Amino acid sequence: MDQVKPTLAPGLPQTIESRNPGIELDMDWVRSAQANTSAIERRAGSLPGRRSVKKEFQAAWLLRAITCIDLTTLSGDDTEGRVHRLCAKARSPLRADILDTLGVSGLTVGAICVYHAMVPAAVSALTGTGIPVAAVSTGFPAGLSPYRLRVAEIGESVAAGAREIDIVISRRHVLTGNWQALYDEIREFRAACGEAHIKAILATGELGTLRNVARASLVCMMAGADFIKTSTGKEGVNATLPVSLVMMRAIRAYHERTGYRIGYKPAGGVSKAKDALVYLAMVKEELGDRWLRPDLFRFGASSLLGDIERQLEHHVTGAYSASWRHAAG
User: Which of 89, 199, 226, 229 is catalytic?
Assistant: First the structure.
């Protein structure tokens, strides 16, 4: 990653991108997508040691990472009180004294991500902030509930105020090579989302091969996905650098062919500030600076913010604090 500070202007409007309308399913393109596993792993493995930033440059990149976090709670014991506390954290992710020392104001996370039942509480708590609420949907995390209910769930979350919908694909369509079924599924989910953006979760840890990841990424984008996302966070293997490299290159290929920029979201397992820096470096190198904004890049995380806070407090004070001082909400 270059030794430059990204410009932080959370209060300013981002560039308005034309939303991806999708294209016809191009099976020749899908079948031509391949993945050289050894080369991908070698490239991904080179990043952590080769790209690093220090001192004020690292602080600037960590501040950028905060703006790209989907602050998430997806637990069976979620309550409105927990969601309200998480939303308070979303509005003020860092202590005022740290922000003052860094000369930053107006910092917020990218979004709050919750189950459908918690959407009204999150929307209420974030009114007037501009922070969107994302709802996981379509039988999250397995995606095995009746199809009509999965489609209806999207509509219910949109009606409740969710501006982003994180849907899960049917993994069996990928594993059996039924690309038409996957395309048709995403098209219908996209239609049910209306104006809300659709983030397609591939559950890459369950797709078997990197080639399947590449092909599923292309099909989801062809069907109109606004974002493609690695994981639900509930699989045995979630976001990894090799999977991220494959998905980013699929995004780059789609942009080069269609002109539409698709967002990317690694989720599950990204919990350390140093990992966030590696992902940002990969985005910068593979997709370019335009993708280093929250409208095109998100971290799906619940604990990442706490570790970033610790690193920024160390930058400001010279001492590390205990992790319990940086609760999520």
Answer: 229
